[in-house]
Amino acid sequence: MIRIRGKAATYGDVWFDEEAPRDPGVDIIRYYCRHAPIGARTVTSLSMVTDLDASADVIADSFSKDCRYKIRRADTKDGLAMEWITDPAPRLEEFREFFDAFARQKAHEPCDSQWLEAARDARQLIFSTASKEGEALVWHAYLISGKSAWLQYTGSCFRDKQNDYRALVGRANRWLHWKDMLHFKHSGMARYDWGGLFEDESSPERAGINAFKRSFGGRVERTYKCMVPVTIKGRLYLPLRDVWRSRKSVLQASSAAAA
């Protein structure tokens, strides 16, 4: 379980179909990627999953033709190096700096440092990188639980705006995903989860991200996120939090309409 101390309550994150400990030591348990709902506060989410129980050849055969070509080119011609980091503690700051620079370029949210530190402390965090001539091009961050891996963060280096460089980084990203799958497979993992799919593809960016994930084959899966209070504080806090978030959403919508 990943334990995260919030402003008014402590959360425990349980992933996939693992069970929470009998004495979790938290106020609220958040269940992610469950195949069956638990409790009243439940929402569904969509994701892509690659089954790692199949042979490497079968997995690769499910990739699109273009995806396989770019991975082969990256493997044979781009001179890439991979680093698999099972002890992320000494590299946390390096990852944060890289990802947050990427997020600023894309106008995305920075990484959640508290979550990263909690996942590290729970020994459920793995990093991987792809580099060329010592320059990091791509970083991936994974949450691991049981025999499953969840892609939490992926960041790429696009400082050079030249098309050839951007194409290299794109190939490095695909190549790193494939190498990650092989590492997880060889370590006994059975499930590679792509970290969610956008159900609304109305924006080009969201449609592009979904298309990238689909190019690796796999299957679409719908699962549940559930929030279950386990202490008096948790049972009192959740309704108050829901009211506060509802009011905040109304105020934001009003501000947007006024603008």
Your description of this structure?
There is one protein chain. The protein is an alpha+beta fold and 259 residues long. It folds into 2 domains: 2-44 and 224-258, no CATH class; 48-220, Gcn5-related N-acetyltransferase (GNAT) (Aminopeptidase, 3-Layer(aba) Sandwich), CATH 3.40.630.30. The protein has helices at residues 56-61, 65-77, 92-106, 113-121, 163-186, 204-214, 232-258, and strands at 2-5, 10-15, 28-34, 41-51, 80-85, 125-132, 135-145, 148-156, 191-193, 219-229. Strands 1-2-3-10-4-9-8-7-6-5 form a 10-stranded mixed sheet. The protein is globular, with a radius of gyration of 20 Å. The mean pLDDT is 93.
Tag the structure with descriptive keywords.
259 residues, 10-stranded mixed β-sheet, 7 helices
Q: Could you say what the CATH architecture of the largest domain is?
A: 3-Layer(aba) Sandwich
Low-pLDDT residue intervals, each spanning 5 or more residues: none
The rounded Rg comes to 20 Å
Biggest beta sheet attributes: 10 strands, mixed
Overall pLDDT level: 93
Derived from helix and strand composition plus strand pairing, the structural class reads alpha+beta
Outline:
globular
